[in-house]
Amino acid sequence: MKHVASTLSALTALALVCAVTAPSAQAATKERATDWATLNGNAAHTGYAAVSLNPANFSQAWQVRLDSTTGSFNIPATGGGRVYISNKPNSAIGILTTVNLSTGATEWTKTIAGAYTGGGYLHSIHSPAYAKGMVYVSTGGHTDAALWGFDVATGTQKFRAPISAQWETYYAPTPFGGSMYMNGGSYGGAYSFNARTGTQNWFASLPQYDEWTPAVDENYVYTYTTKLDVLDRKTGALAYSIADTGFDWRGYSVGCAPVLGGMSDIIVTQYNRLIAFDLNTRRLKWQAPISVNYSEMNQPSVADGRVFYANGGYLSVFNQADGSLLSTVPLQGTAESTVILTKTVGFISTSGGTYAFKRKDPTKTVWSTPAHGQLALSKEGILVIVSADGTVTGIKTRD
């Protein structure tokens, strides 16, 4: 069930769109820059970076052009002073490229060809993830489906861990506690792999849906397909499930990763509903109507007790506690990224450019650049913009 390709406004679009990020608890944390390791930055998929940024310090650091003949590009990841970029699914050849965040120089590029048809065609390659000196990427199809691990400094392949699959498309794997967690399985499921060796820790059977990746914390792995299934992080055993009593089947693609909202809740979207599950009572906490259009991703985000969701021509803001609609902002342009939030500003990329907005008042644009595409914010303070045509722009956000 692919979802919304939200449209956003230049200055309002900015902020809240597919917004991302961290609950009140996160917003209150001390300054702590971290790597943009996976979808929406972290294992909770919040899209929040606990740093304060001053738009007066923003400037373009570098720009480089990648080969776009194999198609456009996935959401990037950062770590170890580099940004990692792969090409889109359904490319004949899979490409994983590493760009130095200080200089913008391409350090190494890996080509991953498929073997299933005998002609080198690869069904798909997905968004990368980073953890402790290694970059990870999954490939899809059947025979070619696998999780790959590479050394970030040299590009040396450390492992290729085969997975069972039937031509699904996956989101970036989720790194946590020395393991990688991901969607997979011939008939649906989740995997855990040792992040250093690629050794399989466990596999858990789940309903057969793609286009998701789990959220992970110290104890559990959270997956949403037709319901919320919570797995033991160490063993993969089912700890408990929470039924989605309003589930409305619309296809076999979820189009959303669970968000750990920080209020003992998980927030997801399902077709035309925004949903919150209460992890304490283990019940559906609330659901709110949303409108949807076609999109690869229908990702909610959380910040300061509010849930942000961009849909159609509007950005809707909901109360995280009860799902009540707080505001709706008219948007212009088409969203091309999730929203990245910091303590002071947020970033959103639309077909009209990439914008920074005042976090407490998303209607106020404080910076913009014509470059647009997928976004990541590195630990070093480089905002990375990956355009569909292969142009990669690095914006310095801190001195």
Folded structure, characterized:
The protein has 399 residues and is mostly beta strands. It has a single domain, classed as YVTN repeat-like/Quinoprotein amine dehydrogenase (Methylamine Dehydrogenase, Chain H, 7 Propeller). The chain is built from two helices and 33 strands. It has helices spanning 12-16, 24-27, and strands at residues 59-65, 77-79, 82-86, 93-100, 106-113, 124-125, 129-131, 134-140, 146-151, 157-162, 174-176, 179-183, 189-194, 200-205, 215-216, 220-224, 227-232, 238-243, 259-260, 265-270, 273-278, 283-289, 301-303, 306-311, 314-319, 325-330, 340-341, 345-350, 353-358, 361-369, 374-377, 382-386, 391-396. The strands form eight sheets. Strands 6, 7, 8, 9 and 10 form a five-stranded antiparallel β-sheet that branches. A four-stranded antiparallel β-sheet has the order 1-33-32-31, with no helix packed on it. The termini are far apart. Mean pLDDT is 88; it is low at 1-28.
How do the helices and strands line up, and which of them pair or pack?
Blueprint lengths: L11 H5 L7 H4 L31 E7 L11 E3 L2 E5 L6 E8 L5 E8 L10 E2 L3 E3 L2 E7 L5 E6 L5 E6 L11 E3 L2 E5 L5 E6 L5 E6 L9 E2 L3 E5 L2 E6 L5 E6 L15 E2 L4 E6 L2 E6 L4 E7 L11 E3 L2 E6 L2 E6 L5 E6 L9 E2 L3 E6 L2 E6 L2 E9 L4 E4 L4 E5 L4 E6 L3
Antiparallel strand pairs: 1-33, 2-3, 3-4, 4-5, 6-8, 7-8, 8-9, 9-10, 11-12, 12-13, 13-14, 15-16, 16-17, 17-18, 19-20, 20-21, 21-22, 23-24, 24-25, 25-26, 27-28, 28-29, 29-30, 31-32, 32-33
